From TrEMBL, chains A, B:
<comment type="similarity">
    <text>Belongs to the isocitrate and isopropylmalate dehydrogenases family.</text>
</comment>
<keyword id="KW-0479">Metal-binding</keyword>
<keyword id="KW-0460">Magnesium</keyword>
<dbReference type="GO" id="GO:0004449">
    <property type="term" value="F:isocitrate dehydrogenase (NAD+) activity"/>
</dbReference>
<feature type="domain" description="Isopropylmalate dehydrogenase-like">
    <location>
        <begin position="4"/>
        <end position="349"/>
    </location>
</feature>
<protein>
    <recommendedName>
        <fullName>homoisocitrate dehydrogenase</fullName>
        <ecNumber>1.1.1.87</ecNumber>
    </recommendedName>
</protein>
<dbReference type="GO" id="GO:0009085">
    <property type="term" value="P:lysine biosynthetic process"/>
</dbReference>
<dbReference type="GO" id="GO:0006102">
    <property type="term" value="P:isocitrate metabolic process"/>
</dbReference>
<dbReference type="GO" id="GO:0005739">
    <property type="term" value="C:mitochondrion"/>
</dbReference>
<dbReference type="GO" id="GO:0006099">
    <property type="term" value="P:tricarboxylic acid cycle"/>
</dbReference>
<keyword id="KW-0597">Phosphoprotein</keyword>
<dbReference type="InterPro" id="IPR019818">
    <property type="entry name" value="IsoCit/isopropylmalate_DH_CS"/>
</dbReference>
<dbReference type="Pfam" id="PF00180">
    <property type="entry name" value="Iso_dh"/>
</dbReference>
<dbReference type="InterPro" id="IPR024084">
    <property type="entry name" value="IsoPropMal-DH-like_dom"/>
</dbReference>
<keyword id="KW-0560">Oxidoreductase</keyword>
<dbReference type="GO" id="GO:0051287">
    <property type="term" value="F:NAD binding"/>
</dbReference>
<dbReference type="GO" id="GO:0000287">
    <property type="term" value="F:magnesium ion binding"/>
</dbReference>
């Protein structure tokens, strides 16, 4: 099988880590029977400066018509609002209907307090519909935004969370060491305040997860503020957490804080038959150009993309090579307290593939 | 000066901790020249079951016309939406225009990683305006909620954050041990997505904090997801954090997770010349009736209420007595790993007053 992968480095260290993602895909053992073709695509702040748009239509149309998946690096965004600029990854999620953002957060199994969870974030609605208005009143300006929650989007994201919980269970059953027993999905919401919107998310998710195929999956709920509290206090208790867009955004970063560095944490933006891997760190202008960015978030994002393209064996190879580099702990980038360059980390991991 | 204080125990352990709050106020040294009168008021789930409303009008009108401040315990809320029930504390905040929720989170100074921050949460608007609608579509139900941000509310909450930063600085200058140098206010928002609503919060807060009286206060910003990340990774870096209602709700619980137990964390709901102290724990039905609830969150909430009624000397006495109990660590409630009863903790702290 040949997979065509779009490469969208973006800005800053995005340009240093995406090539690493490409190399690990190319280095996968031939026995897997996978071939890759790469398409270079533009997006981000530099693109905006050149072309006046942060996400050129060409990038979207090539991804749509010509790619099986993609790797997205990171983009710099202006610190104050700039007319015409809006986040290309947010736009990509919407235009390709990548309705789920999936973020696994995992320590090595030998960590003193091992954690192994996945945040499954709805990616298309909630406050991210960006329908805002502002009016002047005698008391000054008043701005409003719409938070939209639909049964359709809530149902499919909950079903995806259920599928991910089952897949994780299967991988554990195949002998992968784990801290979890029965698969668990935790539904996060704030229906004690937002009884209609978050209430709809909650009841729809409950319903979706009550389907017979999720018979083995335990289902729980947490109010979002309490979820953040528990995330810090008992992270080991969570397996799969599903949440509307904004809470998912916040929980994803909170979960990332539980492991050593953002440089370790991958994500995938997933739709029907399409996935974009995306490291969860930003463009990091402070270290750009020094060749010291941690490539691991991108390598894991490439693996995660493969999982959602049904290439689980290939994904497993990459995960194992990364884990082995981390378990040994000899060649680590500066964010992990080491002094290895991006290139050295990549070579060490390729060697273990 | 005589202060009239409303006592609203609510449900569950609220009934066990609010009496402790009363006792510490009564035990304050006569030299402070403070007298207290108490008014017993109803709110909560039991009240709802008795009267069909969770917050009787009488409670609101007595607080308005007859009290200087109040202590609110905790209320149980139904696990599924119950017609006619809505959270009394949310309603109280709105009806008394208690526009700020203030939550100090502090470890003892001798902690290995000392933390000393205050979350200042806007308390009247954002998604908490609870304007929701639901419609049926061919694809199923779609619900919407309004997120409202006004210049007026953003400005006054930012100004309060600035005042709190200055007051903390004054207390430090008076010799209280501290981990902070220059006062710092961190504005939290998500204006990279919500350019109008959160954009208005951000620019208004910036403007309010640019007033000459805040000349000594450093001002920073954090996007809310990154704020949660930093809260976990570098909590010692933060002094005063100001946020719109919902982010403030989430950050308050996140910050509370940084200290040993919710049983330690106080809050105050503050308006013009009125403050309600409120422990940040819930009604805890699992331990209710056992006499083992930690009273410290309530004692500190009583002190915080006094601060906002301009009785800082009285507040300082309570804080010191609580800190001394915790520093010694001999009489601790079960949530802190001890085995002391509520009554024993209260007596120990009264003794140190
Ligand atoms: C950059 C920003 C718009 C984005 C989001 O909020 O979705 C980011 O935080 C993310 O999680 O990818
Ligand atoms: C109970 C709930 C409605 C409330 C809120 O969200 O404000 C609580 O979380 C709080 O912080 O006091």
């Amino acid at each position: 099988r040949t997979l065509r992968i779009g490469l969208i480095p973006g800005d800053g260290i995005g340009k240093e880590v995406i090539p690493a993602g490409r190399r690990i895909l190319e280095a996968l053992p031939a026995s897997l029977g996978l071939k890759f073709e790469f398409v270079h695509l533009k997006a981000g702040w530099e693109t905006f400066e050149e072309q006046g748009v942060a996400l050129p239509d060409e990038t979207v149309s090539i991804l749509k018509s010509d790619c099986d998946g993609a790797l997205f690096g990171a983009v710099s965004s202006p610190t104050t609002a700039v007319k015409g600029y809006s986040s290309p990854i947010v736009a990509l999620r919407k235009r390709l209907d990548l309705y789920a953002n999936v973020r696994p957060v995992k320590t090595v199994v030998s960590a003193p307090k091992p954690i192994d969870m996945v945040i499954v974030r709805e990616n298309t609605e909630d406050l991210y519909v960006k329908e805002e208005t502002t009016r002047d009143t005698p008391d000054g300006k008043v701005a409003e935004a719409i938070k939209r929650i639909s049964q359709r989007a809530s149902s499919r994201i909950a079903a995806m969370a259920g599928e991910i919980a089952l897949r994780r269970q299967k991988i554990r059953a195949a002998g992968s060491p784990s801290i979890h027993g029965r698969p668990l999905v935790t539904i996060t919401h704030k229906s004690n305040v937002l009884s209609q919107t978050d209430g709809l998310f909650r009841s729809t998710a409950r319903e979706a997860l009550a389907a017979p195929r999720f018979g083995d999956v335990a289902v729980e709920e947490q109010i979002v503020d309490s979820m953040v509290y528990k995330l810090f206090r008992q992270p080991e208790a969570y397996d799969v957490i599903v949440a509307p867009n904004l809470y998912g955004d916040i929980l994803s970063d909170g979960a990332a804080a539980l492991v050593g560095s953002l440089g370790l944490v991958p994500s995938a933006n997933v739709g029907e038959g399409f996935a974009i891997g995306e490291p969860c760190h930003g463009s990091a202008p402070d270290i750009q150009g020094q060749g010291i960015a941690n490539p691991i978030a991108t390598l894991r994002s490439a693996a995660l993309m493969l999982e959602f393209l049904n290439e689980e064996a290939a994904a497993a190879k990459i995960y194992a090579a990364v884990d082995s580099n981390l378990e040994e702990g000899r060649l680590l980038s500066p964010d992990l307290g080491g002094s290895a360059k991006t290139e050295e980390v990549v070579q060490d991991i390729l060697r273990r593939l």
